[in-house]
Amino acid sequence: MAAVPRAMIKSVAQRVLIGMRQAAVLAGALCGMLFFFRAARGQAVITWNVGSGNWSVSTNWSPGNVPDTTSENAVIGNGGTATLDAAFTINNLALSSGTINGAAELSLTGTGSTWTGGTMSGAGTTRVLTGGTFAINTGNPSLTNRNLANAGT
């Protein structure tokens, strides 16, 4: 039986290590998604898909309906501006880039809302209701003239 060259063993070991690192990154990303979307089955994830417009317009959201119930999660991460033109109560909000503005109230009931970037502005209030959670993380979130009321954690 011939000996395997040391360089070949090192090359295979490096490939395995790179593959393990990629798998760990993927697993971490999936766990992060599960953390936010740990909501009960049947809760919709609705994503802002335009540059700017009113929250209440269904075509501004994908898959084409307005997040306006406690069984729906809103995601704003495209840098757009969602104007709250009426009061809305939803399960969770994920704001990573873009702006939520307007004079109306946005209430959050769920335990997975996150704010990692973007701006909340306007004369309205974003309200975390009793039992809800709202994690404000790094990424430079900005609160400008808008009220943030926390009755949760």
How many helices?
1
Range of helix content: 10-25%
Q: Separation of termini?
A: 65 Å
The fraction of residues assigned to DSSP E strands is: 25-35%
Shape: elongated
Structural commentary:
The protein has 153 residues and is α/β, with parallel strands linked by helices. Helices cover 20% and strands 34% of the residues. The chain is built from 1 helix and 15 strands; from the N terminus they run αβββββββββββββββ. Strands 3-1-4-7-10-13 form a 6-stranded mixed beta sheet, with no helix packed on it. The chain starts with 5 loop residues before the first helix and ends with a strand.
Main attributes of the structure:
20% helix, 6-stranded mixed β-sheet, 34% strand, 5-stranded parallel β-sheet, 1 helix, 15 strands, 153 residues, single chain, alpha/beta, elongated
